[in-house]
Amino acid sequence: MGASSDRMARAYRRARPYVQSRESTGWFTSLTDAERITFRERGMQLLGDLLRQLDVEPDQAAVLITAAEGHARDYGADAARHGATLSDTVEAFLRFRKPFVDELAVLARRRRLDTSEATALLVDAESALDRLLVALMTGHTAQSRQE
Hints:
Elements: H1 5-23, H2 33-54, H3 58-81, H4 86-110, H5 115-146
């Protein structure tokens, strides 16, 4: 489909003012630069897995979404270890979700996908994102119970 990690990274940079204003309070400010980089890298892994999953055959997609769920669980567990509440963690995920879906819609228009193709793309993306959100919450909850 042509949705690259670089293209998505630009979409996230455009959304950055909102992200920064929301991150200026709470658990995220207590992270070191190295910890922020780790969170950002895990987010980029998630993004890459998600993009590849949307662009391959269903049997390959299953492997990629499973890998992305592992990254999401790890992200949730790490957020809990760093003092983020479940609500904080879900909010961070939703900040990731919106620019992603918005950019897919832009790509669908640019590629002149017909209505059924664009709808299928967005439905597949929403389904994958829902799975990632559940995995994120599962990782956070499991880590919170260990503490």
